[in-house]
Amino acid sequence: MLDLHHLDPIDQEIIKRLHENSRISYARIGEILNLSRVAIQKRVENLIEDGIIENFTIRLNATKLGKVVSAFFEVEVEPRHAEAVGNTLAEDPNVVSIYQMTGMSSLHMHALLRDEAALEQFLYQNIYKLDGVVRVNTQMVIKRFKQGTGLEL
């Protein structure tokens, strides 16, 4: 649960409503909270300016778009190559997220791919060929229980 206690109750409610449906209008939020559309708009602008809200986005259904293989990769990299490998992989359109992790110099990456053949091609042409890659552990998702788009309320 996200701790919103440093925000006033109105901002907390605005964030909750936008998190449920980022397409909700400021006028509708105003109706719910008994405030004007302009007051809601100003508060949202302040939340953006303060860096609380980073962006508004949508979640696409990868399977319906032909990306049926969801895979996580633990990419062990020589420390001096971690930054370059991370930046290179981050540019790949199949990569959903990539993080440098503690411990051995490793990158944790999530990618969405068309099929197993695309997974194999991705491994050999996009990961293994990079200087500094020592080992790759790949795990395919078989069932999703929850997927987030950042902090959950």
Explain this structure.
Keywords: DNA-binding, Transcription, Transcription regulation. Strand 2 (95-101) and strand 3 form a beta hairpin. The protein has helices at 9-20, 26-33, 37-49, 82-90, 116-127; strands spanning 69-77, 95-101, 106-113, 133-140. The protein folds into 2 domains: 9-49, Arc Repressor Mutant, subunit A (Orthogonal Bundle), CATH 1.10.10; 63-140, Alpha-Beta Plaits. The mean pLDDT is 91. Helix 2 crosses helix 3. The protein is elongated, with a radius of gyration of 20 Å. The protein has a 4-stranded antiparallel sheet with strand order 2-3-1-4. By secondary structure, it is of the alpha+beta class.
Offer a quick outline of the entry.
By secondary structure, this protein is α+β, with helices and mostly antiparallel strands. The chain contains 5 helices and 4 strands, in the order αααβαββαβ.
Supply the key terms:
153 residues, Arc Repressor Mutant, subunit A, four-stranded antiparallel beta sheet, sequence-specific DNA binding
